[in-house]
């Protein structure tokens, strides 16, 4: 029997610029649906090309399911390369988390094998497209650059908190895995990234060092990242991070970390001693000044000095 309606997932894009992931139902064959490029709301997005990622669907709901998985996988709302302003969140039918994951794996595997969608581009091409897209947004004050620095920070805090709450409630994203699974997939991802030389592994040690310096300079200039925080906020963030890390570590247990060879157990005794010496050398090379008396010394001794004189230990400034 001849199908009267076809369903497909697509990737439309501007030449050398941004892209859009969506799904579509049409009466003609998907490859003949050449005039449709998406239901995007961004008026600055002008796509001229479209790739059919998958058209083997019996229902629109199946296409919705893959659309959701692909959008979440590529973080289309946060990623400046994409023109998507919101995630597709409904498939109109229920699908288990396990089935959704399996569908996502199959879809991404098919794209990778056929070198379609994002896999049609080399890491260098993707990087270049993202760079051009970011420059275009910066020039036209679109996307992230429509917002002031304060608005970006506020939206980032709200978005991160809301996203974490939703994921925790629904058991999605990071919360869909057990602590053991998170460790397992993290190790697998790190190994794969190293093999394919993608992400941070695409750079040499010197390039990573240079990028880190540039990033620190930019953050310092714009008062973003750690430079946008007060001493009290940094201290509080460190305590919260330590508390969370302690909880996760407590659940997994020292026995498990030793068995998996992670954390401190992933290094030899000699390596740990060497790392400790390096850390101590860095700490001891930093000089701090008491803002009340002008006394200069390293961090630890300055804390003792200030406490002995009932001086607030936050009243200090790094001088070297």
Topology overview:
Elements: E1 6-13, E2 19-26, E3 49-54, H1 60-73, H2 97-114, H3 123-140, H4 149-170, H5 179-196, H6 205-222, H7 231-252, H8 254-260, H9 269-285, E4 288-290, E5 296-297, H10 299-308, E6 316-318
Antiparallel strand pairs: 1-2, 1-3, 4-5, 4-6
Helix pairs in contact: 1-2
Beta-strand content bin = 5-15%
Question: What percent of residues adopt helix (DSSP H or I)?
Answer: 40-55%
**Numbering strands along the chain, what is their spatial order in the largest sheet?**
2-1-3
Span between termini: 77 Å
Over the alpha carbons, how many angstroms does the gyration radius reach?
A: 25 Å
Q: State the low-pLDDT regions, or none.
A: none
Largest sheet properties: 3 strands, antiparallel
Q: Briefly note the structural class of the backbone.
A: mainly alpha
Total strands: 6
CA-based shape: elongated
Number of helices: 10
Give the overall pLDDT as a whole number: 76
Q: Order of helices and strands, N to C?
A: EEEHHHHHHHHHEEHE
């Amino acid at each position: 029997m001849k199908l009267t309606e076809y369903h497909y997932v697509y990737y439309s894009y501007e030449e050398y610029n941004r892209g859009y992931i969506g799904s579509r139902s049409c009466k003609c064959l998907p490859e003949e649906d050449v005039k449709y490029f998406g239901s995007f709301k961004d008026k600055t997005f002008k796509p001229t090309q479209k790739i059919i990622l998958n058209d083997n669907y019996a229902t629109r709901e199946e296409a919705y399911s893959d659309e959701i998985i692909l959008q979440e996988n590529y973080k289309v709302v946060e990623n400046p390369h994409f023109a998507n302003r919101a995630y597709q969140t409904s498939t109109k039918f229920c699908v288990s988390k396990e089935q959704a994951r399996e569908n996502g794996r199959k879809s991404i595997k098919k794209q990778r094998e056929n070198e379609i969608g994002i896999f049609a581009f080399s890491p260098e091409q993707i990087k270049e497209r993202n760079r051009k897209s970011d420059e275009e947004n910066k020039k036209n004050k679109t996307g992230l650059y429509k917002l002031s620095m304060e608005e970006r920070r506020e939206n980032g805090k709200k978005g991160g908190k809301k996203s974490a709450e939703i994921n925790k409630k629904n058991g999605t994203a990071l919360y869909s895995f057990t602590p053991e699974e998170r460790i397992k997939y993290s190790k697998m991802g790190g190994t794969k990234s190293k093999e394919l030389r993608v992400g941070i592994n695409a750079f040499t040690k010197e390039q990573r060092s240079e990028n880190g310096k540039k990033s620190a300079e930019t953050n310092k200039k714009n008062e973003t990242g750690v430079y946008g925080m007060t001493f009290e906020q940094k201290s509080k963030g460190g305590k919260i991070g330590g508390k969370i890390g302690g909880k996760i570590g407590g659940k997994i247990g020292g026995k498990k970390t030793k068995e998996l060879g992670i954390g401190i157990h992933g290094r030899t005794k000699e390596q740990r001693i060497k790392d400790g010496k390096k850390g101590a050398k860095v700490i001891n090379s930093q000089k701090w000044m008491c803002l009340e008396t002008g006394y200069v010394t390293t961090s630890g001794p300055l804390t003792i000095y200030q406490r002995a004189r009932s001086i607030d230990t936050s009243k200090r400034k790094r001088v070297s």
